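Hey Z.,

So I finally got round to the coproporphyrinogen III thing we talked about over coffee. Here's the setup:
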Amino acid sequence: MEKFRLNKIEQVLMGTTYDIPPIWLMRQAGRYLPEYREVRKKAGSFLDLCYTPELAIEVSLQPIERFGFDAAILFSDILVIPDALGRKVDFVENRGPVLEPLSLSDIAKLRPEDVLSHLDPVFKTVSGLREALPAGTSLIGFCGAPWTVATYMIAGHGTPDQAPARQFALEHPVEFGKLLEIIADASSEYLVAQLQAGAGAVQIFDSWAGVLEDDQFEKWCIKPVNRIVSQVRQKIADALVIGFPKGAGSRYDTYRQKTGVDGLGLDWSVSFDQAKKLQSEGSVQGLLDPVRLVAGGLALDEGIDRIIENLGSGSLIFNLGHGITPQTPIAHVEQLIDRVRGR
Ligand code: CP3
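And the result:
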């Protein structure tokens, strides 16, 4: 693993600054790419795609081959953890994930002992990817944060504000805490195995961190992510971790301090003043509204230039403030990369 520490993303996470920041995009392997849609068609179900190393490697490599990003991200999904814990998980075309909603009595029936063996194909994907990638390209592994994963387990599908999980947490805090511990422990083992298989850094996606009140944020976002980071570092002391608590707002600061993550993924609601302050304490990535990438043209150029002007002289990984959307034109991704790299 050591030699991959020479790669730019890992270096930035350790505090290096580059004239041209390294770039990758959240959800860079996905439906905006025709070659992804081709593989997706022949894979069968979405989970089959995640659990077939040969195909998962192929789709992870597609954005690297097409655009030459500085990092590949493992192709998988945050919901493989509930699947591995024994919950029923499906991905329905045009509807997104559908799970069997979790009730109180289901918590004791989760099967943490099966997680690593169930996810073995993912580790094969990671090691195969590391072999296939150019030596200078980073490989990022990931998992969902316990809070975000639990919101889907409880509601059984995506919701606009994750009210079902918020209500569950308020009505049954002890049981909810237990659930998050089970998810955190499974995710820790999952990330350690990804790092051992060849990932150079891992990202923890907390896409729904922003819907929590302050005290709930502390309990359900910070505490379980800290549990993961600590457990991972017990096994791999120098593990590099990016935290992405989307919508954390004024709480980004305490999030980094209390979770111990190296890099912070910032969504597009963060001001440059706040972003600069956060960057003075460690590396940052993100900020660009994914809709600017859909709009293209001047709106995209201006968005990119502002980020470089404000944050380019510190530790920066260029990225979006959330995942790339399926309607993004490929030409706009090319425009983005050329602009960031000064071509
Ligand atoms: O390129 C990459 O970034 C790697 C793969 C990746 C996927 N999901 C593949 C995927 C990653 C990192 C994720 C993370 C993920 N999954 C998150 C956190 C990031 C975020 O966007 O907020 C969340 C909340 C999920 C759960 C999930 N998976 C949802 C809500 C959906 C449906 C909505 C959607 O964007 O399609 C998925 C399905 C999914 N995961 C797809 C892909 C490529 C599309 C399904 C398909 O191709 O049929």
